[in-house]
Write a structure and sequence with these properties.
The longest helix is centred in the first third of the chain and has 18 residues. A hairpin with a 2-residue loop joins strand 1 and strand 2. Helix 3 packs antiparallel against helix 4 and helix 6 runs parallel beside helix 7. The two termini are about 30 Å apart. The strands form three sheets. The protein has a five-stranded mixed sheet with strand order 3-4-7-5-6, with helices on both faces. Strands 1-2 form a two-stranded antiparallel ribbon. By secondary structure, the protein is of the alpha+beta class.
């Protein structure tokens, strides 16, 4: 980071949080990258000890490795294409919910983002089936032509702007709503492989 390089090292330390907080940030970044590249093996070490060791995996295997088997058993497969849009991944049914948003991973063309349009569509899809104080859990990959999304709206590239935001919103909302409507007895024991 060029800004940090211009700051003397004694001052640079003031920007750092506690060691545990910084480690948690590093681990979260690791998880996001690992989820977006399941075909790549990853390992994470802290103070010489291996925290994560992930082999090359399928997308479903990698999601279950990161979010846990409990999530995997409670999740339904999301896989839909319409025109030049695709949405795939796993989304947990309402019985599996969290007190925070720590199990929400949304990727656009392989890049983890926090997007208001997508977040609103996802909240709406869960609105009538999830208690308002609980948060949904999902790992979803949205694919679309690069020219339809602006990735340069945030310095850290963590936000995007869609050219056709209303159409994207409807696509995400209807796709997820349909996936969540599948009765428990109709769930596949082995979810379809997410495409991204």
């Amino acid at each position: 980071n060029r800004i940090m390089k211009d700051i003397p090292s004694s001052s640079r330390r003031k920007f750092l949080k506690t060691e545990s907080t910084e480690s948690a940030h590093c681990e979260e970044t690791f998880k996001r990258i690992a989820l977006s590249c399941p075909h790549v093996a990853f390992s994470l070490q802290r103070n010489g000890k291996t925290v994560w060791q992930l082999p090359e995996q399928t997308a479903v295997e990698r999601i279950n490795a990161i979010l846990g088997e409990e999530f995997g058993h409670a999740a339904v497969s999301v896989d839909r294409q319409a025109a030049n849009l695709s949405l795939s991944g796993l989304a947990a049914l309402p019985a599996y919910s969290k007190a925070n948003r720590n199990a929400q991973y949304f990727f656009v063309n392989g890049r983890f983002v926090r997007d208001k349009v997508a977040s609103h569509a996802l909240r709406q899809a869960y609105q009538d089936i999830l208690h308002h104080q609980r948060h949904s859990a999902f790992v979803l990959f949205l694919g679309l032509p690069p020219e339809q999304v602006d990735v340069n709206v945030h310095p850290a590239k963590s936000e995007v702007r869609f050219r056709e935001s209303q159409g994207i919103h409807q696509f995400i909302f209807h796709t997820l709503q349909q996936a969540l409507a599948v009765p428990a007895s109709g769930q596949e024991t082995q979810p379809a492989e997410p495409q991204h």
